[in-house]
Amino acid sequence: MKGVTLPLYVIDGFPVDNTSMDFNGNVVENLPDLNLEDIASITVLKDAAAASIYGARAANGVVIIVTKKGKNKGTEINVSATLTHNPYYFNTDRLASSADMIGIEREWAQQNPNLKTMTPAQAQSTLDDMSYRSLGIRTILKKYAGQLNESEMNAELDRLSQQGYRYYDDVANYAKRSPFSQQYNLNLSSGTEKSKFYFSTTYKKDLLEDRFSKNQNLGINLRNITQINKWLEVEMSSFLNYADDDRQTYDALAPGFSFLPYNQLKNSDGRNYTAYMADYMSQATIKSINQYGLNTLDITPLDEIKNNIEQSSGFSNRSFIKLNAKITDWLSYSTSFQYEISNKKLELLYGKNSYYTRSRVNQFALIADGKATMMMPNGNINKTTDLKNNAFNFRQQINIDKDFGEKHSLNAILGSEIKNNRMRSQLQNLYNFDPDALTYTMLDPKIGTVGSFNQKYDNASQYESINRFVSFYGNVGYAYSKKYLFTGSLRWDRSNLWGTSSKYQNKPIWSVGAGWNLSEENFIQLDWLNQLKLRTSYGIGGNILQNVAPFMTAYYNTNSHVGGTQGTVSDRPNPSLSWEKTTTTNVGMDFGLFRNRISGSLDYYRKQGKDLFASTMGVPTEGFGYSTYAINNGQMTNHGLELTLNANILQNKDFSWNSSLLYAYNKNKVTYVNVKAPFYILQLDYPDAYPRIGNPYEAIYAYKWAGLDQQGIPQVYDENGNKTTQTPTTLESIVYAGTKVPTHTLSWTNSLSYKNFDFSMMITYEGGHKIRNADLPYMGIGNYLTFTTLAPMNKDIRNRWQQEGDELKTDIPRLVFPEETTLYNSASGTVYQYADLNVLDARNVQIRNISLAYRLPADWVKKMRLAQARLQFNAENVAMFTKSSNAKYMLGGYRTPNYVFGAYLTF
Amino acid sequence: MKKIIYLLAIMPALFFASCNKYLDILPKGKKIPQTYADFEALLRDEATVHQVPIPQAIILPNDRFVSPANLNYYKLWDINYNWKEQEDRKIYNNSDESTYYYAYSSISVCNLILEHGPTMTEATAQQRDELMATASVLRAISYYTLANYYAADYDSQTAGQLLSVPLIESADIGAPSKQVTIAEIYDYMINDIKSALPKLPNQGQTILHPGKGAAYALLSRIYLQMDNYQDALENSEKALEYNDKLYDWTAYYNANKSQIEEPANYALKKTPMDFAYVENYYFRHGQSPNFTASELSLQVERAAGFEKGDSKFASRWKLRTVVPNTYYTSTMTGFYNTQGLTTVEVYLIAAECQARRGNIQKAMDFVNKVRKTRILAANYTDLTAQNATDAIKKIQQLKQNELIHSIIPFADYKRLNKESAFATTLRKTIDGKVVQLSPTSHLWIMPFPLGATENPGNGSIKQNVEK
To answer: Which residue of B has its CA nearest to A120?
Structure first.
């Protein structure tokens, strides 16, 4: 329930962590660096034995990647180039348009009781106070203030309502671009009887959606395998990766002022639009900025996007050496050592004139005795972050592979592993930084009492973490006359992690398995049956919580108010915590029919978790009311069915058709818990922390929707089944609304070949799960402002309740503005947002990939002195079909496909 | 070949030997507190130790302005602000956990220091005693706030029977707690402070560490709450021996005059009432220590309760209309010592005790001593009183203003509501209807938050108020 989420990657026999530490000390898991073209094979392990070979880290599955080793004989060169184009797309179809928003603002004018008695002076002061930020409402107020007459006001409102989705259009035209990537790969392999050599290099350049964001990457891979003598083989490999990235830090979709679809980024005269202070700040604030000589805070978004680009450069290396010694023909010993290092430096120079720096400096203006003192100097801010990791891994393994007589065969491995992983991060800010002279100004320590200055983020900080593991493992397989197979595995781990001092540390994890090759039996010799194997396995895995200590721990930093070091207790000794135990049972069958034209496997598994880790709310009286801590909370079962089916439907000289199907069914059920949510809102917001018996673990909980009342106000049922417009506060009123995890998943790939053309298409289906709709046709969830503030919202607001009787036709609540104090119900937002009405069916069908390849005819290829040549076109994420457009949006279905063009040559 | 086999046999043995050493390293950036310095730092953490907000105690007597929209959104605020006695506050007090949660967070850190103090390393006997004594005083301040916020006022008639708040003395997970009587919690606080006093330094290491002055000031506050005027007076006099300074607000006013007097100038000034304020014995936040913020706004009616020429008031608030609301908005920014201990409170405790003894002149001398630093020279004349009752009323008026947004106005209302001469019925008009808050209203006791009663840990919590 807690802990790492990525599967473990094992590359050429080594577990590769590639974790790094971010600037605030959190561990981030990354995919391993790898030239994709170097991959020879990928295998995914999920059964009980996986954990006992690779340890607890394998709980999320193991991905075994084997890279290319080089040719046995001769030389081969491969060259390829791919281009990827992804048209920019922002889904405005789901959003209320300018016309909708102006309609809402006109309704505001009708409904607002304050407006009926508002004097011109009050209207002017409301404008000056910037109580309302949206252009429509401000235009209406200008009429009340006497700045515009009725027809001028209407003309302006009409003009705004005709703007469509101008802001988003301007963003698309001037601030974003269509992402475009190029990738070039060269690899060379050659081999003799004694040695195999492989070299590859990949260069990648990605231009990202933000115009000033791009990534560049160069990877170099060298690998050599040499047979030194009859019994000793040496393998050496080194992978180098250089990265050089730019990241734009200003986003035109979060410009620093509020906008609606009718706002703009480009003026009609073609100049870049500037939001002047008077466009978004109150007159009183502007006055004090001018009076005390602070920085002006005008924002020109299309100029700001060029400012404050974060530049990062990285270097990483992963090298290993492996010795394989053949002691006798059935016994071998291998030892290997891998070293990983990676350095990354991020540098961000916040320019003196950028909006970020101007407003940051203003936040630290000390106003006293009628004048302002700038506690933060008015200059560039230089922020650098250094991330460093290194890791080593030392493995030794004895392999036994022996046949006894004719019928018995035994294979076993016995090994040990030592791992060390060290991560560091370091952050530093220099103020009033001169990039030429490389000078900076010290800050007055009193800055902490003037503004919100965080010593860790705004000054400097360091984090470091070291993880060490020592493990022993063994694995035995025995087969009797190739018919009956038995396996067993055992692993024992120790580490320096906090939880390790607990008595549960020394528990081994183990598994046993058995198999029966039915097709080898004499009594089942059928023409159409080529393979039939039954197998079963059973294993116990365990987990300890890595960051929970049996001791009290505290973290420390600098107190910026009174000085000295301040400490905070992060964990209290947690004596009741024990081992998390997972039992996995698996029964399966592999088969091959009709000369293996049809092959596949069928698996049933059952995973039973006991004493699973979960968070619980701290006890307020103990002083930890706002914290959570880990406990062993509950049991759960997962069981499921997996079917893979592969069929060569047609195969002749010119035409072939292969179809493969992968289907999985998974059912998850919480069978025991000993904690209930201390408070209703926690059940809704943190359902995973408070699972309920009988429901899946990753569930969505909601109020039962009871429709709109006669005034168009949303209602739900309370615990007694009565309709209410208030938030029910009991746990009984909150019901199960579905699981977040699909219960059925299906993937179906069809590959067709005709002469030199290959075509393939992959379709997936997910079903049985739900998703909460967060894109609501509702004005400000949890809005407690005095004044209406409008933000872009879902277009279904058009179908809202407008008059009595509409509650029979629509579920979309009426608009109630905060100014309508008698009608306004602050609970409505919560009631509507958490109602099961807004829990959507997430069932979907996706066309994931369509690819078309053309292999150049052999005679052409020969003329070009090539061995092979292939052109390929792919479209990724082609389409998604869902039950409702809301679900499609929430599932990320509104996006444009990636179009990939590639050319692959082999010499 | 044989060599390799030997090597193989030896290697695992080597592993086992060095394994424990290899794994026996501690993570960086975190540590197990062991030394004096490790524990001392825990008391410097403002977020967990030195912040106890008291929102409802400010809202109930209408000591702040709350906009209609906020009242609409925070149902509990509305009940307390508009004295809706028929409503059940327990249901809505999810929006008020902060007093309980933060006060017990502070108590937990203090308990931790007191539990581990005897075994901490690299500490001199004096350092150890001092740190533990400091923790005892900090814990007592939190209990004082809790006991006044969540339980009935101390009344010698009922204190032995009525329940107060849970008492907890350990920082462990699953530590037992017991909801004790009002008398027990007051005895506990007094004993704690008294036994801490001899070990406290005259001045704490920083303003976050209470010294002797702070301890005497707290004792005098507690004794006054118990109507024990003799002890309250004695302790207030001792407190003033350690610090009797008053901040000259008239000088501040004159230095910032142009900005203060310019009507539409709402630029925020850095508050002088922060860590370096000369009146501080001990500093405690009532708002987040992580962000500088303005003070709470005042109702126009409440602002009228300040004396003419009050420079402290004029420096802090200015009339503002943001249609449709008119209120006094804060013109300060920074961190404010609202929940700590200051000299002005001690002066006014001493004044009331003197008045109770019949020393009207002495009482009014204290009042005027404070007023001289607050009231601008042009408006200042000495204040006099006819009798003890008159004097106490005048002292209260000043105290309510001076200590606004601290727990004291709320605690004083509750304390004086027992005496018919001083009991106050608050009145106001909403939509043409007069509503009132009587001295005996149940609203003067805040219900415990649901989060605490539903998750009481190793103890039980009984509400002290029905709704």
So the answer is: B323
